Amino acid sequence: MAEPMGDKYDAYAQKTDAPMAALALIFLCVWSGRIIFFHSLPGAVRATMLTVQGVIWAIFLADLIIRTIISKKSWRFLWTHPIDVIAVLVPAARPLKVLTAFTQATAFATARGRMKTMQAVVLSVVLLLWIGSVAVLAAEREVTDSAINTFGDALWWAFVTVTTVGYGDYSPVSVEGRVIAVMMMLVGIALIGVVTASVAAWFVALTSGADEREDEAREVTRHEEVQARISELEGKIDRLTAALEKSEHSPGVKPQ
Q: Within a 10 A sphere around the Cβ of 128, how many other Cβ atoms?
């Protein structure tokens, strides 16, 4: 569960989370477009896109500084919110903040929590594949011995890397590309673990739900049987009472 950071931080986060998420998506689109279409874009357009990236990065940095200052435990904030820090070092990774859904205490405890977690998993996988593809393309495209020269090649490589299949038909040869590959592998393994846990929690919830319904049905049946027996005993008691009253008003007649 995420550690509370104080009322001032909560008020700030409530106002800025949505705009920062929008800026993160804008940065991702601009960054991706500049790299994927690098050779077909005019120099002025590339320069403008780079400027937009710089402005958004500055906003991310300012946001991190503000959150660190106003949080109840300033330096503790940096440790407990790693994605905010990563977003300044690698701004394209900012959309991965949806992973914070996993830190909620009810992530797997309720049906709504499990649904939210599964949505976060799917979105995280898509974002990871996209970010990894673009990043490795930027690192490998200009390398002479690299086989990753197009976005299609990079996307295929990202799929086989995240799923830990590793066919080996495409592999990075530059230092930057291999660093990206290591991060993709580690995050991919973690996401696969989360998917497995989510599916297991879903099956457990279905099984326990069915067992609870069966137990409830048995309790209802048992209750109805007890009520029927009570009604039968009450009827016998009423008949016996009536017979006793009749014998009292009729001298010489013994009750049967």
A: 22
Rounded Cα distance between 138 and 35, Å, is 6
Measured CA distances, 61 to 48, 56, 74, 84, 86 (Å): 20, 9, 15, 9, 10
Within the chain, residue ranges assigned H as helices are 7-36, 43-70, 74-80, 82-89, 111-140, 151-162, 175-249
Letter string b/e over residues 146-175, b meaning 16 or more CB atoms within 10 A of that residue's CB: bebeebebbbbbbeebbeeeeeeebbbebe
What is the number of alpha carbons within 13 Å of residue 166 lying toward its C-beta? Answer: 8
Name residue, tokens 């990774």: 93
- What φ, ψ does residue 125 adopt, rounded to 5°? -60, -45
Q: How confident is the model at residue 248 (pLDDT cuts 50, 70, 90)?
A: low
pLDDT tens for each residue of 179-217: 998 888 887 777 777 667 766 766 776 666 555 666 677
Tokens of 218: 């048995």
Question: What's the chain's length in residues?
Answer: 256
Assigned token pair, 153 = 């090649």
The whole-angstrom separation of Cα 57 and Cα 92 is 9
Name every residue whose Cβ is closer than 8 Å to that of residue 47 and which is 6 or more positions away in sequence: none
Of 193, 195, 192, 197, nearest to 109 (Cα)?
197
Residue with tokens 């799929």: 159
Whether the per-residue pLDDT at 144 is higher than 50: the answer is yes
Q: Of 120, 41, 133, which Cα lies nearest the Cα of 92?
A: 133
Pair 95, 60: CB distance under 8 Å: no
DSSP state of 4: P
